[in-house]
Specification:
single chain, 8-stranded mixed sheet, binds phosphoenolpyruvate, about 15% strand, binds magnesium ion, alpha/beta, 9-stranded mixed sheet
């Protein structure tokens, strides 16, 4: 049986789609077990918010009436199949008809079978369906046969999950007609907010990869064609900059468009296209190859944020291709409230609609770190990203609701759902107005506790949204990001130039530059590190202390960049022992001496240690006594305290910074900071979570750093609480033993203050 199992597993993995995989399993299992019937029931998706409950739909059978596939749906409370799903447990019966849960389903071709084995199909704790084997005779399936079917069910689980995510499952059975009833699909949160609008679907256009090779006789003609297409796209971006400035009341988010415009104004990309043309290619294929080369540089990076930049390059290429083909895009009769919807939407697609009418964005690809999402947040436009399970081509001119908190899109909602969404959208509009009005107000509690609101950035282009939301400084500049997008270590001058821009932009305000934090999940392509356990390996401060030449170059660049500004703070990542801090401080002192000899007006920087490793929590006093500030990195601290990989999707539901152990660690660090008179800030994601922010406030933390998108909401929360109330909630939270209890407590506190809009705690 083992050989057969291996063979079936291989065949399933090669199946072209879920239908083929299900049919194959039904056929092969029936034959190997010498059974009369093998069927697979798959749990319907929760795609219809108005549907009362999920059902188990017959999706494949060998032995029953195949015409009933996709037609028969059992409730979770019906028959033995429902029992298996409900209990999430294998049921193996010699005579099913004697079992109290037995139900004879007519119509399906069921004869009075006796032997029954039902195995739940489970993916990470969630029941997705049931695999059933039946025998005409009285018969209990053997232990070997049980394990055989259980193993195949696990194979099916990932196939079903995959089909769900790609929308294949919806197409197999539940596809809505012409959206007579509500239909919804879920992706990833891109930009918060709830809004109603009319879908404007961006045409896919020709994909760059599909451009065919074509040799040309007259390269000069191709160069001229290219030139005019590029000029046209450049002008579109210039216009987009103006539109954006008008729509957002600021011209700060133009850095992305500036970057596009720069790429189109000469330099390596244009040179590469021209080179391909001179070698005899026609312009579209030359564009295809040059874009592929440029995108590949980003694509090889394992950092998700940087990989997204490859998409920016490809978007730019598609835009130019679009012009080369002189296609006319989109409707001209614009709806009043535009929700821009597209299969592979990017920032450049915004050029296709009048931005003053843009109220929402839905893209089938991308995530919260896509540039499109960053821009959406800066503009305050709700966005749902990576919504793969949406029949986009059929949405044109349909009414859609975008819930950017959940990454949810609802098409033509009806009845009470519609009323509820309307109410949320109204509340949301009021909230947006209030948040905007707070831009220049301090994050001050009702009893006068002041919190400094700083931003986390990775690339200089992230600074634009930071200014829009009224950040009071940079609390974390992840300097590894500029290192990752280069082909070699940037030199001292190049680094100094980058850092200067950040320090100058926030003149008079603190700018925290974190030293290179590579290793772990942030490799450098030009400095490969191979380790079995990279998160526990050569990363952060450990690496640069072993390479003082890299460390000193960076410190010198930071110091040079700070000349005359005196707002430099240097933050040291992954400190796990006092020696690491001592050595780092000695290197910094050496660099200060050297640079002071070379130039005037260089002040010693403030020095901080990151607290993101458990040993640093226990030695917080020793660390605090040595430096000017501590900054708690809750992302890694959660990872290392709970021993849960922060990037592993499998354990993601268990990764929770509101875990009592994490909160206790933060509280202990704050106490150490107090004892030593050392400032404590928080720069991990917890600072940008409304629930987390209340607790941090309760701990007396007066400096929070987060992404620009989170800042206005956190400021709002802080202004609605008193320090005393936050302390009281913290005390209650510290008595809880589970993250879920802490979450419930804080959700309730937010709801009670009418701040439910910030969290959307599952109210529809
Ligand atoms: C952290 O670990 O919380 C942190 C802010 O650093 P990073 O996310 O860059 O590891
Ligand atoms: Mg970290």
């Amino acid at each position: 049986m083992l050989d057969e199992l291996r063979q079936i597993v291989t065949e399933v993995s090669k199946s072209s789609d879920l239908r083929a995989a299900l049919d194959l399993i039904a056929r092969r299992v029936r034959s190997v077990l010498d059974a009369s019937v093998c069927s697979v029931y798959v749990l319907s998706e929760e795609s219809d918010p108005e549907a009362e409950e999920q059902t188990l739909v017959l999706q494949a059978t060998e032995g029953l009436n195949k015409a009933k596939v996709g037609q028969v749906a059992l409730s979770m409370h019906e028959g033995l199949v429902g029992l298996v799903a409900r209990r999430a447990e294998l049921v193996n019966l010699e005579d099913a008809s004697q079992h109290p849960a037995f139900k004879f389903v007519t119509d399906i071709g069921e004869e009075p079978y006796h032997g029954f084995m039902g195995v739940p199909i489970i993916h990470r704790g969630e029941v997705l369906g049931v695999l059933v084997v039946q025998a005409r005779e009285r018969r209990r399936f053997s232990d070997d046969q049980e394990s055989f079917v259980v193993t195949l069910a696990t194979q099916l689980a990932s196939a079903i999950r995959h089909a769900r995510a790609s929308g294949e499952l919806t197409r197999m059975g539940n596809e809505p007609g012409e959206f007579d009833s509500a239909f919804s699909a879920r992706g990833l949160p891109g930009s918060p907010g709830v809004v109603f609008g009319t879908a404007v679907v961006v045409a896919d256009g020709q994909s760059l990869e599909l451009v065919e090779d074509r040799e040309v006789e007259d390269p000069d003609h191709e160069l001229a064609v290219l030139d005019s297409a590029i000029e046209a796209v450049r002008q579109e971006f210039e216009q987009l900059k103006i539109d954006f400035a008008r729509a957002s009341g600021s011209d700060e988010e133009n850095l992305l468009f500036d970057a596009f415009i720069r790429m189109l104004s000469g330099g390596s990309l244009i040179e590469a296209i021209e080179r391909h043309i001179r070698r005899g290619q026609w312009a579209p294929a030359a564009l295809r190859d040059a874009i592929a080369e440029h995108a590949a540089v980003f694509e090889q990076m394992s950092d998700a944020y940087l990989r997204e930049r490859a998409q920016d390059v490809r978007d730019l290429g598609s835009r130019v291709l679009h012009k080369l083909h002189a296609e006319s895009a989109g409707p001209t009769d614009w709806p009043e409230q535009i929700v821009l919807v597209g299969n592979d939407l990017s920032a450049s697609h915004l050029a296709e609609v009048p931005t003053e009418r843009l109220v929402g964005i839905v893209s089938s690809t991308g995530s919260g770190s896509s540039h499109l999402a960053i821009l959406a947040r800066a503009l305050g436009v709700p966005a749902a990203m990576g919504v793969s399970d949406l029949p986009i081509s059929r949405l044109r001119n349909k009414e859609v609701v975008v819930d950017g908190y959940r990454g949810l899109v609802v098409v033509r909602p009806r009845g009470s759902l519609r009323d509820e969404l309307r109410r949320l959208a109204r509340e949301e509009a009021e909230l947006t107005e209030e948040l905007a009005a707070l831009r220049d107000e301090p994050a001050l509690t009702s009893d006068g506790f002041r919190v400094a609101m700083h931003v986390n950035i990775g690339l200089l282009s992230d600074m634009a949204p930071s200014l829009t939301v009224g950040a009071e400084g940079i609390g974390l500049y992840r300097t590894e990001v500029p290192f990752q997008i280069r082909k070699q270590f940037p030199g001292e001058e190049e680094q100094a130039h980058i850092y200067r821009e950040a320090l100058e932009t926030f003149t008079g305000k603190p700018v925290v530059l974190r030293t290179l934090d590579v290793g772990g999940d942030k490799p450098l392509s030009y400095f490969p590190i191979r380790e079995d356990n990279p998160f526990l390996g050569w990363r952060g401060i450990r690496l640069v202390l072993d390479h003082p030449e890299i460390f000193l170059t960076q410190i010198r660049a930071m110091l040079k960049a700070s000349a005359g500004l005196n707002n430099l703070h240097i933050l040291l990542p992954m400190i796990s022992a006092v020696d690491e801090l001592d050595q780092s401080m000695a290197f910094i002192a050496q660099a200060v001496d050297e640079v002071s000899e070379e130039m005037d007006d260089v002040q010693p920087p403030k020095i901080g240690a990151m607290i993101e490793v458990p040993s640093a929590v226990y030695q917080a006093d020793a660390l605090a006594s040595r430096c000017d500030f501590l900054s708690i990195g809750t992302n890694d601290l959660t990872q290392y305290l709970l021993a849960i990989d922060r990037n592993n999707e499998r354990v993601a539901p268990r990764y929770d910074a509101l875990h009592p152990a994490v909160l206790m660690a933060i509280r202990d660090v704050c106490a150490a900071g107090d004892r030593q008179g050392c400032e404590v800030a928080v720069c991990g994601e917890l600072a940008g979570d409304p629930l987390g922010a209340i607790l941090l406030l309760g701990m007396g933390i007066n400096s929070l750093s987060m992404s620009a998108g989170s800042l206005p909401r956190i400021k709002w929360v802080i202004r609605r609480f008193s320090h005393v109330e936050a302390r009281d909630l913290l005390e209650q939270a510290m008595r809880c033993e589970r993250p879920s209890e802490i979450r419930a407590l804080l959700n309730q506190a937010l709801e009670a203050r009418g701040l439910g809009g910030l969290i959307r705690a599952g109210r529809y």
